[in-house]
Amino acid sequence: MRTINWKNAIIAGIAGTILFDVLGFILTGQWWDIPNLLGNKTGLGSAYGVFGHYGNGILLAVLYAGIAPSLWGPYWLRPFIFITAHTIVLVWLFMFPLLGAGVAGSNAGPMKAIGSLLRHWIYVVPFIFLINKDYLKIESKT
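Above: the chain's sequence. Below: its structure in token form.
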């Protein structure tokens, strides 16, 4: 029976979101651009944006931990498959248009989509070491 290692999923979500933010700072020169955007768009302020942003990072990690065994490919590749699908469907096709950036950020230039995908790819690196290691242990026992 495979179960979610909640501690590792939560730590992976937080660590991944930190990496996402660090790369975002490198690419944009702004710290916490996404939390500030969330706080401004909702009118609830930066604190809400930070909690929402990190809560989303944790939620995605827990979701991944639950479906990782069902994904195909080598374990190191599975987080990238998961987050690429997430980025295309929920960010490029939903969030960007909702925020006025157009499909895949087309109104904001090609670097919007590329930067978004790169940030999400760096976000899942901790998944390989914290979430997938649990599944590798299970697989080696069977």
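Residues 6-137 form one domain.
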